[in-house]
């Protein structure tokens, strides 16, 4: 019996030692980019089987008030919003309100080439629609309150870059159109649809449709880095990125999202798994994008990845389905990118566990 307890004690000790070494390695990876304690920083989380293995914050969440970053801070997640938009479309498809193979002319009758462009094309960035972020006059509307219809009208008459399904080209306009279609088919606003069908359902209580006006507890403030130092982020009206990049969240809320997807709390696996399948072009060529996620690999092991970038913020998450490993990183300065760091952490975690 004495030997049994000694063995248990030694196992516990070495596991603890191993966990400490793992955390030190993760710290060293992050500190390559987030080493300055008096600059804007970031926050990172690693989970295995839905449970947190590592969670840590770096730098400042507010420079003016000299407030340290915490793991509870709320960040703008940028294009990671596209996951929520894509899943919302699949929810509506399950409800029978649309089909992903429907032409967009069914919802926006006057859209040019609308009979040729499908919801699937929008989801997979294969529509050929002009990305509104590349239109020269974008600065004219960046700070205006825009309705979804006004946003669609802003880019709809631009010439298409290519024929629908001909190639993959990352496209924010397609996801704005998807948000418009969500509103038209659900009879509610995009913000309310996400709130009711996702945030409230899985208790993402610290996630929001972004606002610079609302009082948001634990908000991390966004910054740019200039020659003379840091400045507050450029103001953009969130009705412009809309359903392509206007959500805010925390590390732990995003883990709730990932766990809810795994446990089919939002959609059954038959419908949800459509989002995780690689898409194909007209010529049969496979592309590494599903609906709202890049479908990639680390050392030959399948991953689902997506990042985000919006004025003052950057984000990145990697999920490894076969090992149920989730890694996510946020930054509150667009001068610091968590993208490669998050991928490196995912690789190390995969090798270590």
UniProtKB/TrEMBL annotation:
Coiled coil stretches, renumbered: none
Residues covered by the Beta-lactamase-related domain: 34-334
Protein name per its UniProtKB record: Beta-lactamase
């Amino acid at each position: 019996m004495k030997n049994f307890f000694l063995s248990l004690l030694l196992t516990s000790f070495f596991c603890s030692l191993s966990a400490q070494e793992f955390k030190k390695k993760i710290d060293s990876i992050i500190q390559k980019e987030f080493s300055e304690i008096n600059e804007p920083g970031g926050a990172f989380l690693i989970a295995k089987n839905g449970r947190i293995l590592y969670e840590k914050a770096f730098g400042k969440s507010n420079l003016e008030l000299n407030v340290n970053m915490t793991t509870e801070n709320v960040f703008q997640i940028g294009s990671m919003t596209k996951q929520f938009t894509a899943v919302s479309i699949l929810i509506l498809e399950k409800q029978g309100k649309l089909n992903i193979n429907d032409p967009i002319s069914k919802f926006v009758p006057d859209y040019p080439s609308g009979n040729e462009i499908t919801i699937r094309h929008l989801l997979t960035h294969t529509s050929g629609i002009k990305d509104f972020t590349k239109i020269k006059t974008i600065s004219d509307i960046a700070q205006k309150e825009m309705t979804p219809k006004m946003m669609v009208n802003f880019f709809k008459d631009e010439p298409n870059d290519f024929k629908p399904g001909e190639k993959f080209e990352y496209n924010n306009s397609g996801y704005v159109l998807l948000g418009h279609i969500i509103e038209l088919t659900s009879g509610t606003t995009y913000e309310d649809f996400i709130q009711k069908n996702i945030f409230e359902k899985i208790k993402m209580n610290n996630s929001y449709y972004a606002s610079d006006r609302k009082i948001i507890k634990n908000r991390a403030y966004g910054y740019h880095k200039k020659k003379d130092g840091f400045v507050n982020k450029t103001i953009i009206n969130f009705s412009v990125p809309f359903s392509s990049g206007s959500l805010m969240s925390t590390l732990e809320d995003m883990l709730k999202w990932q766990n809810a997807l795994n446990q089919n709390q939002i959609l059954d696996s038959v419908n949800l798994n459509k989002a995780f399948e690689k898409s194909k072009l007209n010529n049969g060529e496979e592309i590494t994008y599903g609906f709202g996620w890049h479908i990639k690999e680390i050392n030959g092991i399948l991953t689902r990845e997506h990042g985000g970038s919006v004025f003052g913020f950057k984000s990145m998450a990697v999920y490894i389905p076969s090992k149920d490993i989730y890694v996510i990183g946020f930054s509150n300065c667009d001068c610091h990118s968590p993208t490669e760091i998050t991928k490196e952490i995912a690789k190390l975690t995969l090798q270590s566990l």
